[in-house]
Each structure stands twice: as C-alpha cells, then as structure tokens.
Design goal:
The complex is a heterotrimer of chains A (353), B (252) and C (177).
Chain A: E1 5-8, H1 9-19, E2 24-27, H2 34-43, E3 50-53, H3 57-69, E4 74-78, H4 80-96, E5 100-106, H5 122-127, E6 137-139, H6 144-161, E7 164-170, H7 171-175, E8 177-180, E9 207-208, H8 215-235, E10 239-242, E11 249-253, H9 255-270, E12 275-280, E13 282-284, H10 288-297, E14 300-305, H11 311-318, E15 325-329, H12 338-349
Parallel strand pairs in A: 2-3, 2-4, 4-5, 5-7, 6-7, 11-12, 11-14, 14-15
Antiparallel strand pairs in A: 1-8, 6-13, 10-12
Chain B: H1 24-38, E1 44-48, H2 56-59, E2 63-66, H3 72-82, E3 87-93, H4 94-100, H5 102-110, E4 116-121, H6 151-154, H7 160-164, E5 172-177, H8 181-199, E6 205-210, H9 214-217, H10 221-235, E7 239-243, H11 244-251
Parallel strand pairs in B: 1-2, 1-3, 3-4, 4-6, 5-6
Antiparallel strand pairs in B: 5-7
Helix pairs in contact in B: 1-8, 4-5
Chain C: E1 3-11, H1 16-29, E2 33-38, E3 48-56, E4 70-73, H2 76-82, E5 91-95, E6 109-113, H3 115-122, H4 128-140, H5 148-155, H6 164-176
Parallel strand pairs in C: 1-4, 4-5, 5-6
Antiparallel strand pairs in C: 1-3, 2-3
The chains are: A alpha/beta (353), B alpha/beta (252), C alpha/beta (177).
Chain lengths: 353, 252, 177
C-alpha cells in the first residue's frame, strides 16, 4: 500500500492527471477549482509538460480540442459558468470523436450564481450542454481518493471510446482534504492512428472534423457514434450499494450528497428503519440495472441532490415509476444536513413521498 | 515534354467549391506553394475556419482539423504546444478572425504563439450569403447593411494589421493583396516568410490578404478586382506593419 | 466507533485553516480516517473563516459538520454563530483575549484560554491558533499529544522548517495552561 498523504480534491485531480500521462492543461481561473490550474502551473514546466492560461474558457476548450486532435492526453477544468462557455467546444470534440477530460467543480447557479458547492449541472452534464446528439462519460467522485481514481479512469475511458470524460465534482470535494494514496497502477494507453502528427509524406492526410454537409453522411456518423455509446452503456456503468441487502427504502445520491446521505442512513438504521443507499458513480451511463432491481425490492426511493431535483428524473425513468420517489434537496450552495435527509427517510417509511 | 506548370503537392487533387472569380483558389495555391517550397508538407498541420474556407481540410493535402467559428488560433495553439516540431497554420476569413474570434486572435498574437495565420479579408461574410463583416467599409451595402454601413449605428471597420502591430508579442504582421500579378507575387513572398518565421521559431506571423467576393459584392470578377484597388486598398493599405527581426537588424 | 468532529472558526489570517490542517495531519499520523473542509470564498480575505475536521476510526461520512463535538472560537462572531450547534457534552475553546462573551450553556465544557495574550507574551503573536490547539489536544483526547514534531515536519514545507520550533512551543503552552 502506497503511503497516504493529505490532499485537496482539486489537487488530487491534477496529480492523478499527471500520473495518467496528461502533459497538457489549458484553463481559465474560476472559483472553486483554481487549485487544479495552480497545481498544473507549478508541476507541468518541471516535467516537460505545458500549462497555459487561456484568454477565456472558450479558448481553453478549443486548445484542448487541438491538443486532443494532436493525439495527446489533455484536460481542462472549470466551474459551472465556465462549463457553459466550454459547451461549444464539448460539442465539437464529440462531433470530431477525439478524447478529452473536462472537470466541472460545480458551484451554485444559474447565471453567475454563487461559489458554494452545488450539483445543479447534472442536466447539463448528462443530457447535453452543447448542441447536437452526443454523450459524455460523466464521473461523480464522492471522495478525494475518487477525485484521483476517476480522473485516471476518465482518461482511459475517453481514449478507449473517443469521447469526453467529465469529472462532475462540486466545491466541497474540490476544497476538502482527505488522505489519499496513489497506487502504482498500470496506466492504459491507446494507439491513435487518427491523430494529427503530420503525414511525413507517408500516409493519406488525417482530417479531424465534425462537418458533414450531406445529411446521409451526418446521420451515418451519428449512428456509428451511438453504436459506440451503446457499448459504453453496457459495460461502463459504475455504482456503489450501501446497506442494500435487506433495504426496504433506498436513498439515491451521488457525490457530496451521498456522503451526507450515508450519515443519515446510519442514523435511520439505528432507529430501526431498513434503508440503504445506491450511489451512482457514473451519471452517464446511469446505473439503470441497479435502480431497476432495487425498484423490485424496496417500497420507495429518496433522492438527495444539491439542486432542485435533476437526477430524480432519471431515477423515476429507470425505476420505470414502479415505486414512489421523494426529493430531499437544497440548492444555491446550501447542503442538506444529515437530519434533513433522515427526516425524508422517516417520511418515506410513513408512506409520505 | 518539360513540365512548366503543375499543381502544388500540398493541394489535394479535388475540385474546389469556390465561386467563379473568387481569389480563395489563388490564396490556397500560394499557401500550398510555400509549403512545397519549404519542404514541410509532411510536418504541416492546418486549421480550417468556419466561413467560405470551411472545407479547406479537403483541399490541403496535409493533416487538417476543422475548428469552431473564430477559435482556429486557440485550436492551433493546442496543436502547436503539443507538437512544437510540426508547422501549424490557420486559414481564416474576416468574420471568423476579426469578429467572433478576435479574442483568440489578439491573445495568440500577444503570446507570440509560434504559428502562421493566413487572414483573408474580403470585407463580407461570404458563406452565409453576404452579410456585413467587421471589415466591411463605411457605406458598403451588404445584406445586413442594406442602406450602406452606417458607422454611427454599427461602428467602424477594424484594421487588424494596424491593431495587432501595436502589440509587443507578434513577430510579423503584414498586409498583401491578390488583385494583380505583382501583388500576387508579393503575397507569395509574405506567406512564405510567415512559414519560414515559424520554422525558425520566431513566433506569431499573420498575413492579411485583401481579397474579393464578386458574388456577394454583386460584381463581375473584373469589377471586383477594380473595387479592391479603388476602395479596399486605400482603407487597408498594403505593407509590412511589424517585422521584429527586420526592425532589429535595421537598428544594428 | 469513535468520531470527533472539530470546528475551528475565527477571522481570516488567524491561522484557522492551518490549525485544522495540523489536526488532520495528526489524525493521519495516527492512522485515523480524516477529512478537512475549509470555508472558501471572499470571506477568506479578512472576513470570517472556518474549517471542519473529522477524525475517526472508521470511514468518514459527511465532511460537513453541523453539530461539532469540539468548537474552537477565535473571535466573537464565530462563538455567537456556532455556540448553539455544539453537541450536548461537547467542548468549547474560547480565545478569551479577544472574546468577552461567556458561554451560557451548562451542558458543554468550556475552556477560556487567553491565547492571543499568551502568544504575545511568548514572543510569537501569530500562534494563538496553536496554543488553542495544544489545549484541544489535551482536553478532547481526539488524538494523542505525542508526535507533534513528526506531524509538523510532515506538512510544513522544508523552506519554512524554522517555524516548527515556535509551533511546538505554542502547542506546549496551550497544553500546560
């Protein structure tokens, strides 16, 4: 076991990215994720990498697009308002089938919103954000250790499926410190014959492009892309189940909300309420199967989120509305207390959803 | 029989989609000739814009990427920072470079990003059918300035070379034209120099090519070239606006 | 299962976050599960700052503390804001040089330590935070007092190693008070 060190979540992402072979970072300052940029600015020049502060989020995501097309493991990071600006590039990256890693350390919105933690970009991350038919792999860390492990995983999945992996974190996990160890895991790399390297006058020219003026061609491209997405959905969903063996009620929460929810589950168990927790680790692909199976076992669900109720739509969808789902939420940078979640669990037990 | 004229190797053997009389074909050729003559076709990566030249990725026989509207200098930055040993160029129009992409242009120049920018200024949005561009002249009639560009209402044209040359950053900022043989030959020299600068690691080189758009100007090709001479060039004078290396040598 | 939730609050610049980091590193040295969560944002520049530290022998659930076992108050607004959130049976540590207020609860243990004055007297006015922390270590039993040097060495950068001695002394002053 490697030695444990204390690290901020944001720093863990940066260190993990470097360990995953990322040598190019392009970003623009925004709270509460700036530690990632600061870490990269310090480390990259020492290891032959590139840190570049761009003139805007728009420029930084387009630098990522160029670097990804050049075949490099590349990333950018931002927080909610900045991710809206990056949406253009996310769509181009998806349409061009190049891999990238994008971190969103969420803060309250909409608009300039606030700087305190939030999960209100769930829709943006899992349903679109940019224009067009596309998906991103969305990973939701709930601890500093996962900030690191999911960053490494994110790079590998991005390369494997030629997609963007998004780390959907929040201000709390970004700012908090926890012990973390970097195992000497083998980093998977992938061949990139499509990359822009210069032809060396030895092959046909490579073109990275998302423009297809003939609708027949564009449709085929989209069909192909969604075949790939299907494979991702079948193979890459990740989730954690906690005290679900005999559960009669199921709390569903991701990221920091799942940490609060876990405390509430423990308290509820002490009161004799048989409740468990399902924590989606991938938000796309959503752990559909886990939710559907739970729907056949439990009497109802409590969805805990730091927004006005976004993931709850997927919980209802994938449990096929078989059981009632209630919402326990705070937003704008507020976080529900374990007591609030416990109260929602108690209500569920009384049949109040 | 001796070959006296052939297509540059860096131009793909495909028909171009440009309108009759459009100088994009000439400018493409000049870029391709420069690449061929410098022997860099195997290491060159091009960035196509959004605008009339959007499909340049099919025309240049080098590795190509299609950028989002205005973002070519940022995309080129990403590539060049990953592959400094490659030669990276962007090919952009006036709407792309001087309107939506102005921030990316200015900051790439300010960083003295070691890339080559070919900026085609024809004072109009061509691809979308002839709307007012940031470089449309005062009084110029376009689809979105049907009574002529009213500078009191929508401001003045932007002189890109004049503006960028005020920056410390860039190495080489020059304006050329392709409306007659002499100007075409000079344009070729400037474009080749802009690539040569990159090879030598000198930094950001931008060549503004004053071009024409007969279709959207509502003119014949001949009329359009005359209008370049009579109206465009007085407003956008040809010349070298910044050449750091030349200035240094002159100071010696 | 033993878990201690510690909330340290005061003005930005009083070393609130540093004291919290020290406790978190102590926990790490003791092989405990720990989390450290700072308040962040504009309040860090001169306004109020606080941080939450959870020290536990089992995995930490929420790092967000709503009912601390231990409150360290380094200014009046912080004491006023958090005094009622401390769990019954909990402990409150007050820098009595800066805070006149007396805690009116009788279900908590309160320690008044003139930490700012003690720090001044000892010649390192910026270490009231560590004097209070020394007292917390003694009274809370959350982590042992021993091994402070090892902990400080673990997270104070080498170029600031000259600060370790003063920190050790401040911890001792708090412990002995």
């Amino acid at each position: 076991m490697a030695q444990k060190v204390l690290m901020k979540g944001n720093e863990a992402i940066a260190e993990a990215a470097i360990r995953a072979g990322c040598r190019h970072y392009f970003g623009y300052p925004i709270t509460p994720q700036t530690e990632i940029a600061a870490y990269m600015a310090k480390k990259m020049p020492k290891i032959g990498g590139v840190f570049l502060q761009a003139e805007s989020e728009i420029a930084s995501i387009n630098m990522v697009y160029g670097a990804a097309a050049a075949g490099m493991r590349v990333m950018t990071s931002s927080s909610s308002p900045g991710i809206s600006l990056k949406a253009e590039g996310l769509s181009y990256i998806a349409g061009s089938d190049v891999p990238a890693l994008v971190v969103n350390v969420q803060r309250g919105g909409p608009g300039l919103g606030g700087i305190q933690p939030s999960q209100s970009d769930y829709f943006q991350a899992t349903k679109g954000g940019g224009h067009g038919d596309y998906r991103m792999i969305v990973l939701a860390p709930a601890s500093v250790q996962e900030m690191a492990s999911l960053t490494i995983k994110g790079f590998e999945l991005a390369d494997k499926y030629l997609m963007t992996s998004m780390i959907l974190a929040d201000g709390t996990i970004g700012q908090m410190m926890e012990p973390i160890s970097f195992e000497d895991t083998e980093i998977k790399t992938f061949e990139k014959p499509w990359a822009l390297t210069g032809t060396k006058c030895a092959r046909k020219h490579n073109v990275v492009n998302s423009l297809y003026l003939k609708p027949e061609e564009l449709e085929v491209k989209n069909f192909e892309r969604f075949e790939r997405y299907k494979v991702v959905e079948e193979n890459e969903a990740m989730w954690e189940e906690y005290m679900m063996e005999d559960a009669e009620y199921c709390v569903v929460a991701f990221g920091i909300a799942s940490r609060v929810a876990k405390n509430a589950v423990v308290s509820a168990r002490k009161e004799g309420i048989k409740v468990g927790l399902i924590r989606p680790i991938t938000l796309w692909p959503f752990p559909k199967q886990a939710l559907l199976e739970a729907a056949d076992k439990v009497k109802g669900f409590v969805c805990v989120e730091l927004n006005m109720g976004q993931m709850i739509e997927d919980v209802r969808l994938y449990t096929q509305c078989k059981k009632p789902v209630s919402l326990c939420c705070r937003c704008g940078g507020m976080i529900p207390s374990p007591e609030e979640v416990l109260e929602s669990i108690r209500k569920a037990q009384k049949g109040e959803f | 029989m001796a070959t006296v004229f052939e297509k540059p190797k860096s131009l793909a053997n495909v028909p171009l989609h440009y309108c009759p009389g459009c100088p994009h074909g000439i400018i493409h050729r000049l870029v391709a000739e420069a690449i061929d003559e410098l022997g860099i076709e195997g290491i060159t990566i091009g960035v196509a814009p959004v605008g009339c030249a959007v499909m340049a990725y099919d025309y240049f026989n080098v590795d190509m990427i299609e950028a989002a509207h205005g973002r070519a200098p940022a995309t080129a930055t990403g590539i060049k920072r990953c592959r400094p040993e490659n030669i990276v160029f962007t090919y952009q129009g006036d709407g792309d470079l001087a309107s939506i992409g102005m921030a990316e242009t200015v900051h790439a120049a300010a960083r003295n990003e070691n890339i080559t920018v070919i900026f085609v200024n024809n004072a109009i949005y061509g691809m979308t059918g002839g709307q007012m561009a940031p470089t449309s002249l005062p009084g110029q009639v376009t689809q979105t300035s049907p009574y002529g560009r009213d500078v009191n209402h929508c401001g003045w044209p932007i002189k890109v070379c004049e503006m960028l040359s005020t920056l410390e950053g860039p190495e080489y900022i020059t304006r050329v034209a392709v409306n007659n043989v002499k100007n075409v030959l000079n344009a070729k020299k400037a474009i080749k120099k802009a690539f040569q600068n990159q090879l030598e690691g000198k930094g950001f080189s931008l060549v503004e090519v004053v071009s024409a758009c007969p279709t959207n100007w509502g003119m014949t090709p001949q009329q359009a070239l005359r209008w370049v001479e009579s109206d465009m060039l007085p407003y956008y004078p040809i010349g070298v606006y910044k050449d750091r290396t030349a200035a240094k040598e002159a100071a010696k | 299962m033993k878990t201690t939730q510690i909330l340290i609050a005061g003005f930005g610049g009083q070393g609130v976050l540093f004291a919290g980091k020290f406790l978190a590193y102590k926990g790490l040295t003791e092989n405990m599960q720990v989390s450290w969560l700072p308040s962040y944002g504009p309040e860090m520049r001169g306004g109020t700052a606080n941080c939450s530290i959870v020290l536990s022998d089992s995995p930490v659930g929420s790092p967000i503390i709503t009912s601390p076992d231990v409150l360290v108050a380094m200014n009046l607004p912080s004491l006023q804001k958090f005094v009622d959130t401390v769990v019954p049976g909990g402990q409150i540590f007050v820098d009595s040089t800066l805070i006149d207020m007396k805690v009116e609860r009788d279900d908590v243990q309160v320690f008044y330590i003139p930490a700012t004055q003690l720090a001044k007297d000892a010649g390192f006015s910026s270490l009231a935070n560590m004097i209070l922390t020394g007292k917390v270590l003694k009274e809370s039993g959350a982590v042992p007092f021993e091994g402070n040097q090892q902990t400080l060495e673990a997270f104070i950068p080498a170029k600031k190693a000259n600060l370790i001695d003063a920190n050790l002394k401040a911890l001792q002053i708090g412990y002995d008070y």
